[in-house]
């Protein structure tokens, strides 16, 4: 059995097409399969359409959240419900071509535990997104001690063993692609071209993208915290040198009353640095707080089609 997890947030325009293309691909593979749709608190017709699909297609199942919990949580829930020997994560908008799945399965059968899609080209995304994404994935690699592959999203196949390992990780702020790297196993990167969205608009506005980017770094690195120490030493050193300059000016009789502007500049600069460092510390404390509350990751409103499990 192979499970395919598809997160949905306001995807009414693409859902039917996605289901058709996924079904065609999965039929061609010739193994038992299930399609797990996770409705992440959509506010359009997505849940109705998905429920309709579940009625007609014995392979389809639907989990509906009580509200929007976010993409990373949606795929986590899908993995919790999946029963397949392999679990595939794929976006609903057909940016990740379902036609790549047979190749992923082939690699899995060759003995790889994780087959992730590596984007060698992105079509139909803004120059800004392409540029920031490229920069970000490289920055992330430098910042973290975990070997997170560059230009890789959540489109991937995972063996049951990987899935079970992932389920043991209880953290709330989930950066799934990083966690998969963290658990290890034999991983293979399959290159592909990321297509344009089939229809609709991105569900990742800049704010959500930034939050995901921050989660990636803070989940896997405490280097930003060390940065405070390094900057502290560096700036103290500089200040000390400047102090010597000022003192010698005084000693050797230079007029010392000038320099109001530079004084103000130094003052403002240091205050800025302090606030940034406080912010970094605050971010980590916030994460400790989130984790310590121990709330469930998501709340399910409705499950459809899971009793059909044994029929396929
Ligand atoms: N998504 C979700 N919850 C959210 C935002 C997005 O489940 O809060 C889903 C969305 O329906 C899609 C996938 O996550 O299947 C990727 O989102 P999108 O294609 O909008 O992101 P992009 O490709 O633009 O980065
Ligand atoms: Mg997309």
Note down, in words, how this protein is organized.
With 312 residues, the protein is of the alpha/beta class. It has two domains: 2-201 and 295-304, Spore Coat Polysaccharide Biosynthesis Protein SpsA, Chain A (Alpha-Beta Complex); 223-292. 50% of the residues lie in helices and 17% in strands. The chain has ten helices and eight strands. The protein has helices at 15-29, 46-56, 71-81, 101-109, 127-143, 160-167, 176-183, 206-220, 223-251, 260-293, and strands at 2-8, 33-39, 60-65, 86-89, 114-122, 152-159, 187-194, 300-304. The protein has an eight-stranded mixed beta sheet, sandwiched between helices. Strand 1 (2-8), helix 1 and strand 2 (33-39) form a beta-alpha-beta unit. Helix 9 runs antiparallel to helix 10. It is elongated. The mean pLDDT is 86. Uridine-5'-diphosphate is lined by residues 7-9, 11, 40, 68, 70-71, 74, 91-93, 95, 202-204. Residues 91, 93, 95, 197, 202 line the site of magnesium ion (MG).
Q: In CATH, what is the homologous superfamily of the largest domain?
A: Spore Coat Polysaccharide Biosynthesis Protein SpsA, Chain A
Residue runs with pLDDT of under 50 for 5 or more positions: none
Q: What value does the Rg take, in angstroms?
A: 25 Å
Number of domains: 2
Distance between the termini: 9 Å
CATH class of the largest domain: Alpha Beta
Strand content: 15-25%
3D shape: elongated
Total strands: 8
CATH topology of the largest domain: Spore Coat Polysaccharide Biosynthesis Protein SpsA, Chain A
Compute the number of helices.
Answer: 10
CATH-level-2 architecture of the largest domain: Alpha-Beta Complex
């Amino acid at each position: 059995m192979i499970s395919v997890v598809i997160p949905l947030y306001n995807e009414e325009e693409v859902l039917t097409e996605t289901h058709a293309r996924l079904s065609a691909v999965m039929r061609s593979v010739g193994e038992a399969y299930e399609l797990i749709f996770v409705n992440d608190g959509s506010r359009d017709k997505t849940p109705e359409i998905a429920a309709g699909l579940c009625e007609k297609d014995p392979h389809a199942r639907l989990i509906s959240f009580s509200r929007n919990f976010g993409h990373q949580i949606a795929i986590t829930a899908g993995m919790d419900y999946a029963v397949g020997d392999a679990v595939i994560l794929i976006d609903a908008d057909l940016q990740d071509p379902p036609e790549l799945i047979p190749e992923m399965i082939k690699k899995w059968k060759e003995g790889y535990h994780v087959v992730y899609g590596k984007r060698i080209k992105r079509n139909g995304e803004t120059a800004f997104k392409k540029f920031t994404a490229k920069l970000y994935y490289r920055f992330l690699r430098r910042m973290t001690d975990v070997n997170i592959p560059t230009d890789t999203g959540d489109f991937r196949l995972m063996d049951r063993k990987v899935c079970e390992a992932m389920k043991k990780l209880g953290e709330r702020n989930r950066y799934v692609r990083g966690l998969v790297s963290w658990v290890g196993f034999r991983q293979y990167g399959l290159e592909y071209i990321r297509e344009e969205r089939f229809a609709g608009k991105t569900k990742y506005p800049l704010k959500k993208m930034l939050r995901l980017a921050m989660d990636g770094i803070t989940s896997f690195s405490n280097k930003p915290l060390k940065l405070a120490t390094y900057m502290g030493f560096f700036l103290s050193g500089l200040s000390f040198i400047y102090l010597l300059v000022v003192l010698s000016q005084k000693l050797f009789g230079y007029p010392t009353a000038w320099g109001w502007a530079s004084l103000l500049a130094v003052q403002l600069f240091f205050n800025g640095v302090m606030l940034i460092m406080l912010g970094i510390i605050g971010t980590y404390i916030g994460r400790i707080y989130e984790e310590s509350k121990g709330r469930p990751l998501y709340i399910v409103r409705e499950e459809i089609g899971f009793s059909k499990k044994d029929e396929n």
